[in-house]
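re the bet — no i am not wrong, look at it urself. input seq straight from the record:
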Amino acid sequence: MENPDINSLFSENYQKIFRLALKMLKNEQDAEDATQNIMKLAYENLESFRWQAKFSTWLFRIALNHIYSYTRKRKKKRHNTVKLNYSYPDSNNPEKKLYTNELFKNLEEFIQDLPDKQKEVFLMRYYSNLKFKEIAEILGKKLGTVKSNYFFAMKKIKQGFKQNNLLDFEEQL
């Protein structure tokens, strides 16, 4: 079945897939390559999409499978990871800039220390702004399980910040 808006569906989801790949792969070039491969793979397998579910759900499932496959292959080739170069909001205050850089560096470390199930839910929710229901569909999990994984991911990240005396969080958990 040919959908007349197929190009717009790919365009609408490209940046979301790229951000997910970037957060999971930690390298801009790898993320760009993976995103291109994901889009190509999805386009080539478009006939398998049933148009009964959301296109983005189907596309994110392909993306996760591809990224996990890519990560397994990459781990066999090299053991070190490349750090991302972030561009933070400009600040004339060097002390504030340094503090902000330290916060983001620690956030990335806390995210990497999460169990895979919590990490994937956190990344899709926090960086791709997906709704819990969409994440549940993508992962083939129950909504409660997805919310629970996000809750525990946030709890661990907050604990990391607290233990390192980086931020004061009000205890809301």
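see?? The chain has two domains: 1-79, 93-173. told u. also The domain at 93-173 is CATH 1.10.10.10 (Arc Repressor Mutant, subunit A). so pay up
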